[in-house]
Amino acid sequence: MRASVSPDTFPPRGHEAKRLSIIDAAAGVFCREGFAGANIDLIAAEAGVSRQTVYNHHGDKEKLFMAVVRDLTDRCNVGIFATIATFPDQPGDLEADLIGFAVRLNQNCICNRDGKFLRKLIQTEGERYPELFAEWREQGPGTTLPAIAARFARLAYGGYLTIDDPDVAARQFFGLVNAELQTTFMLGGTPREDEVVRSATNGVRTFLRAFGKRPSPGSVKKHTALANA
Amino acid sequence: MRASVSPDTFPPRGHEAKRLSIIDAAAGVFCREGFAGANIDLIAAEAGVSRQTVYNHHGDKEKLFMAVVRDLTDRCNVGIFATIATFPDQPGDLEADLIGFAVRLNQNCICNRDGKFLRKLIQTEGERYPELFAEWREQGPGTTLPAIAARFARLAYGGYLTIDDPDVAARQFFGLVNAELQTTFMLGGTPREDEVVRSATNGVRTFLRAFGKRPSPGSVKKHTALANA
DNA sequence: GACGATTTAGACAAGACTGTCTAAATTTGT
DNA sequence: ACAAATTTAGACAGTCTTGTCTAAATCGTC
Known about the structure:
The structure is a homodimer.
Chain A: H1 14-37, H2 40-47, H3 51-58, H4 61-84, H5 94-110, H6 113-125, H7 130-139, H8 141-157, H9 166-177, H10 182-186, H11 193-211
Helix pairs in contact in A: 1-2, 1-4, 1-6, 2-3, 4-5, 4-6, 5-11, 7-8, 8-9, 9-11
Chain B binds a DNA duplex through helix 1 and helix 3.
């Protein structure tokens, strides 16, 4: 929007840097204290900036909050799609590959600073800003889950998995892979790497017990066996 | 608990009723507005009580908050253990019985008013009151998950399931059964009953594909089969 | 009906916070 | 080095909130 032939003459250099620094500090304070408890003086101090500069950049506590959520959503989406691009489409060792994918997803998008902050802000203030979080819902789960479901469908089509509904399978994949991190997430903590790996390993094993091809290679029998057990 | 013979003359009747009414109103306001944003005048108004009465009963905004969390934790635990008692130890139709159990657990303990409020308060303020929420962690997941794990171990011992680690299985059961409710939970919403039933149905089906005995009926073989698959 | 305890309404002081304003200091591009 | 833009520190009014206090009203029980 700030177009110019010569480089951005208006906000030369430190301008954008300060904007980012304010956003980052605000994210931390909003998460720790909640919207109502967040203190603009504190945000300014943590950003290493005067209070007036905060107002110059974002005008308003509410506008600042919106900017924080939008920034976090964008950053997380970038990370998630970059990670989805590493989904094992033609797996060598399916179990190991899916575990690696799950660990990457958790470490790069969910357990990192941005992911943790965005999750907390959504949980905390989601009901207060319906449109803002409807936007997140569309660009977040509404986009990433179908993308992952498509990858699972591809694995099923390639004969690696037996899946009825790829969308359900994608959601269950997340549920399984994060099953052992729920309590930590609830309390706002960050799981250690070995906890992430263990949860992912157990989750993927169970996932493959449910959806993996049975050892017998030729048998392509469908899942009608347990229908009315 | 409330003895009738020469009833407690101290708080005759309306006293305890007002205490509860305050706790309930405070729970709602704390959830909506967060601790910092919660307004004691508003709590008093929603409780149908004067502000001074709130202070008479609970003394302090922070003490009031603690009382709310403790009350919610107790109530939820009662509900959870009552529901765990309905776990299908000797199932007729294992799939249907587990689905029923999962739906009961969700509707009576997680999606109801108390469960929703407690979850939100833990997410929102958990980091600010470590001891309080350590207490919740012990009495909540720390107690209920082993209890459910024990039930799954019993089903495995009875030959209904093939489970390596009952604790992992219990956590994965939760993850699967709630897999399709995560987004709704994130935003503080309450899923409709049919959504709960669908998520539970899909979750239990996948759970049984992973842990259910293979169709062969008479086989009571122990769980050594898939040990190192 | 009377008595003791509880509740109520309202006033109140003390403190905190937001958002604005101003003038000085600093940075940035030329 | 100069000029324009940006940043800073501090003061400021206005509002809101908490927690206390007091005197009147209400409730429950005998």
